[in-house]
Amino acid sequence: MVFIPGGFFEYGLNENEVPYKTFNWNDSVPKMKVWLPPFFIDKYPVTNKEYDEFTDFIEENGHIFCHPNEPEGKEHRRNTYWDPRYKPDHPVTGIDFYDAFAFARWKGKELPTEFQWEKAARGPEGLIWPWGNSFDPTKVRYSGSLYGTNIDSLDEWRKTILKAHQDTSLDSYTISLKNPTNISFYGVVDMVGNTWEWTRSDFKTRRMFHPVWESTQTKANAFAVLKGGSFYSHPGLMFPSYRAKDIPFCRHNEMGIRCVKNIPVYLIQRALKKPITNKAIY
């Protein structure tokens, strides 16, 4: 894991800093400040191999690490398990919020908040991308990587992902983490592209996500924040301040996970020699 120091962090962007105004970019503005305690975050996304070890455990020992609101009879095996294109050393995909939550608890960790995730990706200077302030297609696994093209328009993007969805000749959608394409200031690998990553933040309130699902309709507080974009994404979905959302049991083949380890508050208070109120911690 990688250590991320505590302190104030400016999340989001000012309108003139938004690199692509193509999707719901207004959810990423304005730039605001939050204080974050120090924490540790996984250097790499969780791989298929790691996740499969978790589901083997669940099948043998039961759902002892699962979310209390998890649907009865929940299947945790990733929905890409039988597809050979999703290789053991590739980031896990095809998992929902409940899967991600249970895996993190099984590892003795947690899902990151959107603030933690964004700070780990953007560094202390608040870069627009993990490597700088300009998009570099050579540093990401995104829609343009599938066929070696530059995605310059929404129409071209739609045609590319439709082709990829129907193309059985593609050897792989995701790529191995052995040769990382992007590394943040703090040394966190592959935070942009390849796979979306679940957070534990509620899209509406930005607080702790508590899944709510009743009948066949979604509620405003039934959406968790996802970050980072995937192999299907347009660049306008991938800058770290962009806030995507989805319902808690959506298991697209683009959705993955990275965990954090939070430092107990009493240890932080002891180090700082002063109390920290819960209101300051997100």
TrEMBL record:
Give the top-rank taxon of the lineage listed in the UniProt record for this protein.
Answer: Bacteria
Kindly give the InterPro entries that the UniProt entry links to this protein.
Answer: CTDL_fold (IPR016187), Sulfatase_Mod_Factor_Kinase (IPR051043), SUMF_dom (IPR005532), SUMF_sf (IPR042095)
Q: What Pfam families would the database entry show?
A: FGE-sulfatase
Boundaries of every Sulfatase-modifying factor enzyme-like domain copy: 1-261
Q: Name one GO molecular function term.
A: formylglycine-generating oxidase activity
The protein's name is Formylglycine-generating enzyme required for sulfatase activity
Q: Which organism is it from?
A: Anoxybacillus tengchongensis
